[in-house]
Amino acid sequence: MMKCKEATQLLSEKLDRPLATKEKVSLAMHTAICSPCRQFGKQMEEMREISKRYIKGKDATTK
C-alpha cells in the first residue's frame, strides 16, 4: 500500500507530468481511502488554478 508521503509526491508531480498507469492506479487506490491526501490533491489543483489566473491578470495589466 502506498504511503501518504509517496501519494503527496505523486499528487504534486501529476500537475507537471503525466503519471504512468501504475502510478495512477496506486494513487487512485490510496486517495480513495485517505481523505487528507484527497484534500491535498484538491488544494494543489486549486493553487495551480489560482496561480494561472494571477499570471493572466498580471499579463493583462503589464501590456
From TrEMBL:
InterPro entries: Znf_put. It holds the Pfam family zf-HC2. Residues 4-38 form the Putative zinc-finger domain. It comes from the Bacteria. This is Zf-HC2 domain-containing protein.
